[in-house]
Amino acid sequence: MNTRVTIADLVDARRAGKKFAAVSCYDYTTARLVAAAGVEMILVGDSAAEILLGHDSTLPATMDFMVTITAAVRRGAPNVCLVADMPFLSYQTGLKDALTNAGRFLTEGGAQLVKLEVGEAQIEVVKAMSDAGIGVMAHIGIKPQTIGKMGRLRVDGDTTEAAAMMLDLADAMVEAGAVSLLLEGTARDVAKMVARRVPVPVVGCGSGPDCDGQILVIADILGLTQREMPKFSKKYMEGGKAMTAAVAKYVAQVHSGKFPDDKHSYHVRKSEAADFTKWRKQQAE
Length: 285
Ligand code: KIV
Description:
By secondary structure, the chain is α/β, with parallel strands linked by helices.
């Protein structure tokens, strides 16, 4: 029997020292294939704004768009632990907005957890969500939604001061009720300290091998993106080249008239053959 992976299963996996795999993915068809490959978790990341829509940051992702694609991913992957990314300004504008928007991911999108990029300013919102019964994944380390303020995104936890701040923030998030942490672009040793210290599953994205789970963006795994891959990411196939080669073959066959052939065409029913031949003859006269 297929059963849905829940945060409780991931807590058990962590206790048993078993790693879990997650991907960021944004559509029904890909979610179906990714689930068949055995991932335990899918994040519908706001990186969709870059990967699907071609923006140069995650900021233009909207609530309606994210809820729509989250529901599509859930239809494709009914049994994974589904996490929805709260887009820019969906939780920074007040507790009521944050709760309403997080709730939409659960009720309309079918997500089990919501992820938000956090600093000290988000302790209250994480607590409010947790008090409302919403499972929160607190995203610390590199926070792509701060690109406007920071100007560029860089590794976190690579100084003693930054490491100490990160441990404090991780503690504060767990204390506020976060049921999972996501560490993006964090120095390996510090990620290890965080993962050992907190009692919740820690997902690493470019934060070394000592986190409980790992996440990569599906387009990077498949080699579909043109963008320069971050140091931590890994391409498992040249999907972009394979896709362009396949479509180029199709284009050539259309141009040459080789496609579609008779095998890829519909035909008048056999039982209609005599009538049809007679009728066609009349049409030609
Ligand atoms: O938006 C996203 O896909 C993410 C992952 C890269 C962690 O936040």
